[in-house]
Request: fold
Amino acid sequence: MNRCLSLLVIAAFCAALTANAQEAQKNNAPPMLGIHWAKGIEPAHGGGGSPDMTWHGGDIMPSAFTQAIFWGTSWTSPGDKISGMDLWYSGFGGSNYAGTSDEYTGLNNDKVTSTVSYGGHFVDTTRASGGNNTSAILAEVCKVIPTGNLATNGYYAVYTDLPRKGNYCAYHSWGSCSGVNIQFAFFWNLDGDAGCDPQSTVSGESQGLQALANVSGHELSEARTDPRGTAWFDSSGAENGDKCAWTFNAPYVTFSNRTQWKIQGEWSNHAYDTNTGYPNSSGQNGCLQGQ
Reply:
């Protein structure tokens, strides 16, 4: 989770997190973690010393069970986004890209692995709301996912048809449905949104799908390594996706099902320590794209 701990953090970043903290306190809502800032809004990473992430004693996700929820009246005409994200999640597990997060350990020496499965998607064509309110997004997950299907290693990605309102493209968080602790993520509709567009050259994918694919890589990688804001992040609070946002080392990565996507890199302490990664926006050679 990005935190306002340094004077180097830009004013927009601090203001957004302050507003989020006040909203969370007001509604007893979980905070937004790993906010994927739009282009040009990315805060500085690191608060002095090593830019490596450190473990803060909390849980990681050794494996993940993922499902997608497409929420909003416009999902009756989804174009290629629902079918495309089905392919994205189906191919993420076991990919080299998923493997960029496999070095991080947690309680009882548990380790993040590339074991990520996909349980398919749900479509809810009621009117979407609450992009800036984590409680509303959590409530949507609890409403849509059958109680008996909830998994403690569940990661539920909520894709709305709401155009972006604010300086970020997506976030992840956590909560509880019927006593089951879960992880979830929120995504705006990024069609035609230059601030959240990776400018992919992969053919056969709409711009909106390409944008969702990129930000989805950011959030799922962060949820696996820091699902509740108590595991892996650096001295400024940046998670592995934050530290490599809007940086790419190849035109695309290939997933385990042979689909291709342009997705940002993820931070690797090992890559930085051995100078084997590519540079993030701060020039630190710790990013891996898993291409």
Observations:
- The chain has five helices and 13 strands.
- The helical segments are 11-27, 81-92, 134-144, 207-225, 269-273.
- The longest strand covers residues 154-163.
- The chain has a mean pLDDT of 90.
